[in-house]
Amino acid sequence: MGKNYSALSKSIIDYVGGTENIISLYHCITRLRFKLKDESIAQKNTDEIKKIPGVLSVVEANNQYQVVIGNEVEDVYKTIMANYDIKSALGSDESEALDDDRSGNIFIRFFNTLSSIFNPIIMPLAGAGMIKALLVVLTTYHFMSADGSTYKILSAAGNSVFFFLPLFLAFSAARVFRTNQFISLAIVAALLEPNFTALVTENGVTVDFLGIPAILMGYSGTVIPAIISIYLYSKLETLLKRMIPKSLEIFLLPMVALLIMVPLTVLVVGPIGVTLGDGIGSAMNFISDRSGLLAGLIIGAGWTFLVMIGIHWGVVPIMINNLAVYGYDVIRPMVAAATFASAGVALGVFLRSKDKNVKVLSLSAIVPALLGGITEPIVYGLSVKYKKPLIAQTIAGGIAGAFMGAMQTKAIVYVFPALTTLPAFLGDTFVYYLIGIALAFFLSAILTFAFGLGEESSSSNEETEGQVNTISLPLDGEVIELEKVNDPVFSEKTMGDGFAVIPTDGVIKAPFSGKVELVFPTKHAIGLKSTSGVEVLIHIWHQYR
């Protein structure tokens, strides 16, 4: 890890109420996600948590208390898990940390479930997607033949996750629904078994199963059937465990489960799931065809807010389903508009701010945003914090999203929008994608620079609280304690802490680089503010004792 995260970890754990208040913890790409027994303990300390060096922000959503760390979240998570006895999912997989929470409404529980199922498979999905996109580049520009063995081996690597996507979803869903993962795999694997797939010449073909007509569907790459099937199996497993003797459970439970769930999935769940997925895809394409501009405007402008409250996972299955059904998706380019607009904010803040710390933060956040599509350090560290950049980001994302929606811009695989994933958008609309992301980035940077940092002063003050700042003496002389000054306004520190100087000459110099904020009419008091946000009052008094 290199860097020491012990102090940061301890501060976070203490402020959320200690280990005794933590039910479970996991992390996503940028956030520590706590499930707490009593959220009010953490809520009353939220302002203090936000001030911890290394914490970008705090989000309360989906019955979780989320501490936004940024790119170093995995290192912070590992430090916490190594030093505290806290229940966790494996790695960054949240599904084991997901409790059957009935306190939230059905809307929250639905998005919690989707997040838990899809979050673990996003990385392999994106990695395989990039291999597929890379092969498109290599074959398009004749660096590799699609008939060669090298291509076929690499193609297998790229297609693996997409072809067997129902298996990945089954395994992840089983963990979320608290059921046996390997029996779940066996149930869904039956849908991809060669003898079964040989029956499926095309969707809608009808065959006979014990005299019952079965409508056959192709399940490779599908999303909904596996999730519904494993949800139903989780209920069946609970029932079977009550009925089957413990001594027979090891073989009888999986046998009965397969005998019931595979036919049920083939006869009912599968066709309904495929039809539902096709319907969702058709609906999205209908909206995009009729009003791509409006859809792009809404998604480009609103995606950041969906991410902030954690319900963007509700859209992810739709995008993956579109890729499975049509071979392309029109939503991902609209999301890219929001991503590159966030990156533009970082550039605009870097150019506009005079605060060295803010410049360092904004510059360091540009790289992961442009190369990896990770924007939360920008969203929470800059946009939300300073307010006006969020407005600029929303406007630029909406305009760029509207443009790409109007031009029907497509993604051919699921990836995080970034410069490194450009091949994922190759095709007849690729040039529109390039124009769209450039528009989002530069327009956002220009608007951010023009709007300024709305809450710069107050934010700077908050950042400097609790920090040690070294300044030069404004004049030569003897330094005395402020309490010895014969003026209760200063000696009692009504104006704040400080010190007094008995001068040896009459020359007063600025103690740092900055600007004059105020000058009293009598010229005996001057207010200064440094470039890093430190505010100082220099008061001239002729009777100090």
Automatic annotation (TrEMBL):
Sample GO molecular function, one term: protein-N(PI)-phosphohistidine-sugar phosphotransferase activity
Topological relation to the membrane, as annotated: Multi-pass membrane protein
Protein name: PTS transporter subunit EIIC
All copies of domain PTS EIIA type-1, residue ranges: 487-545
One of the record's GO cellular component terms: plasma membrane
Alphabetic keyword roster: Cell membrane, Kinase, Membrane, Phosphotransferase system, Sugar transport, Transferase, Transmembrane, Transmembrane helix, Transport
CDD domains assigned to the protein according to its UniProt record, in alphabetical order: PTS_IIB_glc
Matching SUPFAM superfamilies: Duplicated hybrid motif, Glucose permease domain IIB
Protein source organism: Enterococcus gallinarum
